[in-house]
Amino acid sequence: LAKTTQPISMDSYEGQEVNITCSHNNIATNDYITWYQQFPSQGPRFIIQGYKTKVTNEVASLFIPADRKSSTLSLPRVSLSDTAVYYCLVVYGGATNKLIFGTGTLLAVQP
Amino acid sequence: EPEVTQTPSHQVTQMGQEVILRCVPISNHLYFYWYRQILGQKVEFLVSFYNNEISEKSEIFDDQFSVERPDGSNFTLKIRSTKLEDSAMYFCASRSRGGANTEAFFGQGTRLTVV
Asked: Best interface-test mutation with A: which of B47, B101, B110 has the largest number of A CBs within 10 A?
């Protein structure tokens, strides 16, 4: 299973764009890159998922270079409520598709 | 929006007691999971369940743990004889189908405190 590495924490201010980069050097051909968000004492919540190039939804964008060894989650114009832990996961394309969480990135948004 | 429901939200139990954590996955989902998160630590995979049987389990999921889908709607996690180190948030999750590109929906969790 591909291991992910991401910064432990990041600070930002309201209204700024935040980019969180994750490295996953040993990603396999069938793996997908997925990002989850977790607020304290709540379950993780799906944000976005991609295989290659760029994916955008109403919440975020995900940029994946051609070699797929890294990915960048982009949050436009963050607000205080975006303060959370963000997990980058490489989802194995096997039978159960279990999610293996790393330590995540604690994003702290300040006024 | 459909959601995964977990009960109770908080359970306190004495060491050595049995506990059952309950989950109602999203109705048309086929794959079910339990995860746990010890305070301040990362989310850890416990077990996956599909077609009425365990698909995969982690080293954490030893003989003290069991899962069941007794009536086609509920999905339960039983801990037979709780230990202090079982204190954690337990999250249930479900997915509509297999495939690495299928979103997992998590419940709000049950906070288990073993005293």
From this structure: B101
Residue count of chain A, please give it. Answer: 111
Is B35 in CB contact (< 8 Å) with chain A? yes
Q: Which of B30, B29, B61 is nearest to B45 (CA)?
A: B61
B46 sits in which H/E element? strand B44-50
Do B114 and B86 contact (CB within 8 A), yes or no?
yes
Residue of A nearest to B106 (CA): A43
Interface of A with B (CB under 8 A): 30-32, 34, 38, 41-46, 49, 51, 87, 91-104
Q: How far apart are CA A89 and CA A43, in angstroms?
A: 15
Judge whether B43 and B55 are in contact, CB under 8 Å: no
Tell me, rounded to whole angstroms, the distance of Cα B113 from its chain centroid.
15
pLDDT tens digit string along B48-105? 999 999 999 999 999 999 999 988 789 999 999 999 999 999 999 999 988 878 899 9
Of B91, B95, B99, the CB nearest to A43: B91
